[in-house]
Every structure is written in structure tokens, then in C-alpha cells.
Design a protein that fits this description.
By secondary structure, the protein is an alpha+beta fold. The protein has 8 helices and 16 strands. The strands form 3 sheets. It has a 7-stranded mixed sheet, with helices on both faces. Keywords: Carboxypeptidase, Hydrolase, Protease.
Length: 370
């Protein structure tokens, strides 16, 4: 099934279902899972992921709870533990068909529906940048009309296909920008043109990968030396960026380990400056003021000056275009700042975070930081 990932070792007894997560193609990386369990109604099920200890980020299993759904619309958290290198789900199943996943999936079909719905808006210009290895289209949405006095803003999501919260965030961003009654979206479109790639990795998404495309390439390590053969997704987007320029760049991700929403800047790039620092600080302050879901205390270590990895998208864009370029990270677990025991961090909360992020961009523009 779309984004499915699991290998069944044994399924003879409901209380001893043994599983392995498949590696991304041509890699040793695994962590994303998505599968259905049939004919287990009214049974206490125990599912053991035997290779969880060799996952890409084993620390991501600590204090983690898997998601499940009966209708594929509402995803709730289930009892999950990690011990002795095994991830264990215990759940009393209520219906004969239930779905389990690492995070709420975002299907290829839903992506196509999103693109079609956006194209129907007269503010949107749809463009297929080219094709992926698997022959899928690289979809770009341009929102707003270009003029000399407008900023060029790029938003991309899901370079790592298993980080589905990134595309849920995109739904919220597009809803904000395309709602004629939304003052934030309307104010931004008076000052900006947006170029939006809702899914940077459609092949990895459909294949059920965690981080890689159909060649086994980590797209967020392919920006400096991209190629049409191994990373056509980045190649095509970079090609378009050279045509448009970039004044603002936000790359939306999910983090396996940290239970927070946070921003990673590009402080370690060679041409980092006081101006870039003021832009980054201004945006983060504005976002913290816009929503209690965001914080600035926890995040990734800051790179030493000149030591940033320019293969990473946000670092490359900051260096190459000299603009405010950031990565937004959301949790697979829950937001420890505002926990939700039943749902954890969820599609709905991911989508809702987009509007404060866009409001922070508006505030940054108002302060003339861009």
C-alpha cells in the first residue's frame, strides 16, 4: 500500500506478532513503518519490532508512542515501549481492520488532491518541474504575481519522506495563503511571491522510506553537488531557484528524538553575518510570540563558524543566495511544552503551526529585516 513498510516475521498469535522495518532502498536506514492488521477485533495484541535497535535514530524510540487509526482520518496514540532493542506496541484492538504508523501518513492520493485543489485558485500557477526516478511529477505551486517590489519566498517540505508532519504543515500554509478572508495570507501576498513544493520526495513517500529517494539518496545531503541521475528532485528545484532567486527559505521537517518545535538556522556558513543573525533572531522571536507551540531553548547544536555542511538544503541556500534560510523541525513524539496524551503531535497541530510561521514572516517583513 502507499507508504507501506513492514516485514512480518511471525503472526500466528495476537500476543506475539513479530515484525521488522524494511530499510530504505540501497541504504541501512530504517525507522518509518506503516501497515494494517486484520481480523484482530477484541483481542489484546502485542507487536514486537525486532530490529528497532538498529533504526536510524534509536533514541527516537524513547518516550515514543506509535499512532493507530480505524478510519485513516483520526490517528491516536497507543501504548508503546522500547526495551532491549525492541519496540513493543500493546493495544486492545476494537475492529477487524486497524492501521499502525510511525506518524500519521500523508498519501500520494491526498497530495494529488491538494495540488488539484490549489490549482483551481486563480492566485495559483501550477508547474511540473520535471520527473522523479519513478516517473512522478515534481509539483511546484507559485502563489502571487512577481513584481520588483515583492520578496521571493520558497517553502519546501518532506525532503525526508517519513517526516509526514511536514506535508500536514503544508496544508495549513496553503490554506492560510489561499483564504481570501485570512488577513495574514492577504498581507503576505501584497509583499511576497511564494514558490511552494509540498512534497520534495514523492518516490520515497510512496515507497515507505524514512529519509531517501528512489536511488537511496538523502536529498537533504545533496544540495551542493546535486545531479539529475541521483537527486533529480533537488536538481530541478535548484534549477528553478536560479531563475527566481530566493529572499526567504523555509525547509519543513520532523525530528525523531526531540519533543519540541524548533528552528535550525545556518549560523555556521562561511558568509554568516550580523545581518543574517538579526534576521534569524527576529524570525524566531516573532514565532515564539505568535504561538506557545514554539520554543527556542531546545534544538540542534549551532555549527562553529565556517563549519556548516553545505550539502544541507538550508545551509546551501543561505550561502548561495545570501538570504534568511531555516529548517523548521516538528516532533514525531509530542510537544513537551503542550502535551496531548491522546494524540501527541498530530496532523492537526502540524497544520495549525503553519499560520504562526507565516505570521512570523509577516512580522519580519514589517521590521524590515528582509
Amino acid at each position: 500500500m502507499d507508504s507501506g513498510n513492514i516485514d512480518v516475521i511471525a503472526c500466528d498469535s495476537a500476543d506475539n506478532i513479530r515484525l521488522n522495518i524494511r530499510n530504505d532502498l540501497n541504504t541501512q536506514k530504517h525507522q518509518w513503518f506503516h501497515f494494517s492488521l486484520h481480523n484482530a477485533a477484541n483481542q489484546q495484541c502485542q507487536l514486537l519490532f525486532e530490529n528497532a535497535g538498529t533504526a536510524a535514530y534509536p533514541s527516537g524510540w524513547q518516550d515514543y508512542r506509535a499512532v493507530a487509526s480505524y478510519d485513516r482520518e483520526t490517528w491516536f496514540r497507543v501504548d508503546t515501549s522500547y526495551q532491549d532493542g525492541q519496540l513493543v506496541i500493546n493495544h486492545l484492538v476494537e475492529e477487524n481492520l486497524i492501521y499502525f504508523a510511525y506518524f500519521a501518513p500523508y498519501s500520494s492520493e491526498r497530495h494529488r488532491d491538494l495540488i488539484a485543489a490549489c490549482q483551481a485558485d486563480d492566485k495559483v500557477n501550477y508547474l511540473a518541474l520535471g520527473q522523479t526516478i519513478d516517473g512522478q511529477s515534481m509539483d511546484l505551486l507559485q502563489i502571487g504575481q512577481v513584481s520588483d517590489d515583492k520578496k521571493i519566498c520558497w517553502l519546501i517540505a518532506r525532503q525526508h519522506p517519513g517526516e509526514t508532519m511536514a506535508q500536514w504543515w503544508m496544508e495549513g500554509a496553503l490554506a492560510t495563503l489561499l483564504d481570501d478572508s485570512n488577513a495574514i495570507g492577504q498581507a503576505l501576498l501584497q509583499q511576497c511571491v511564494f514558490y511552494i513544493v509540498p512534497n520534495m520526495n514523492p518516490d520515497g513517500s510512496r515507497r515507505g522510506h524514512l529519509r531517501h529517494n528512489a536511488t537511496g539518496t538523502d536529498l537533504n545531503r545533496a544540495w551542493r553537488n546535486t545531479s539529475i541521475d541521483n537527486s533529480p528532485e533537488v536538481y530541478l528545484v535548484r534549477q528553478k531557484m536560479e531563475q527566481t532567486g530566493v529572499d526567504f527559505f523555509l525547509d519543513v521537517h520532523g525530528d525523531e528524538g526531540l519533543p519540541y518545535n524548533f528552528i535550525a538556522g545556518a549560523e555556521g556558513i562561511p558568509n554568516w553575518s550580523n545581518t543574517r543573525q538579526a534576521q534569524l533572531d527576529g524570525y524566531k522571536v516573532a514565532l515564539a510570540q505568535a504561538t506557545p507551540e514554539f520554543q527556542t531553548q531546545f534544538g540542534y547544536p549551532i555549527d562553529e563558524p565556517g563549519k556548516a555542511n553545505l550539502d544541507v538544503g538550508s545551509n546551501f541556500i543561505a550561502q548561495h543566495f545570501g538570504c534568511l534560510s531555516m529548517t523548521l523541525e516538528m516532533p514525531f513524539k509530542d510537544n513537551s511544552e503542550m502535551p496531548s496524551p491522546l494524540y501527541g503531535w498530530s496532523p492537526e497541530r502540524s497544520s495549525a503551526l503553519a499560520q504562526p510561521c507565516l505570521l512570523a514572516l509577516l512580522r519580519t517583513l514589517e521590521q524590515q529585516l528582509l
